[in-house]
Design brief:
The complex is a heterodimer of chains A (110) and B (115). Chain A is built from no helices and eleven strands. Chain A is mainly beta. In chain A, strands 2, 4, 5, 9, 10 and 11 form a six-stranded mixed beta sheet that branches. Chain A has a five-stranded antiparallel beta sheet with strand order 1-3-8-7-6, with no helix packed on it. In chain A, strand 4 and strand 5 form a beta hairpin. The N and C termini of chain A lie far apart (40 Å). Chain B is an all-beta fold and 115 residues long. The termini of chain B are far apart. Classes of the chains: A mainly beta (110), B mainly beta (115). The A-B interface holds A 4, 8, 32, 34, 42-46, 49, 51, 88, 90, 92, 95-103 and B 2, 31, 33, 35, 40-45, 48, 55-56, 89, 91, 95, 99-109.
Chain lengths: 110, 115
Amino acid sequence: QKEVEQNSGPLSVPEGAIASLNCTYSDRGSQSFFWYRQYSGKSPELIMSIYSNGDKEDGRFTAQLNKASQYVSLLIRDSQPSDSATYLCAVKDNFNKFYFGSGTKLNVKP
Amino acid sequence: DTGVSQDPRHKITKRGQNVTFRCDPISEHNRLYWYRQTLGQGPEFLTYFQNEAQLEKSRLLSDRFSAERPKGSFSTLEIQRTEQGDSAMYLCAETGERGGPDTQYFGPGTRLTVL
């Protein structure tokens, strides 16, 4: 059974701080990794994708991938109250199936 | 708005009834996925299509569930003899090249409540 693990939180950070979200996965053959944001009652919205080891930056968001440790993280700089949501980590296997973690709830306090 | 649409947005039904959901992706040529999401959980894979071919089906998908994608365009998900445990959000996602390889774009979902 391929698994994606996330700390459910909630993770609380003050406005302007850096939020750090973590994810581990079990399938060593996975090649594609994604972070989604999901507001309550809404569908997941893609934030970042990352395919190779290292960091990938997009605005206030940085995704980090370490395949050897089977670890993916998302950093959100200058956190805003509008960033308060559940963040889902997703992994694609070699058979085009996607596995999602249960999500980490982030609260950014004004 | 990702451009992926789902209908209906909400469905309330009585146990034992059949329900059908529809998903309209942007492109006929992309992969189309169905997921189920319950409160506090991430989306759970149900099945996916490449064009009209159903390539993978989760073991979680009992014989009460069936999905089709006629002509590789829109897709339907039918649940027969609904049970209270089927209550969930049913999400459709299209995978294409818009944002990079294998990026998924979700529709707004259909929330099913089985009484």
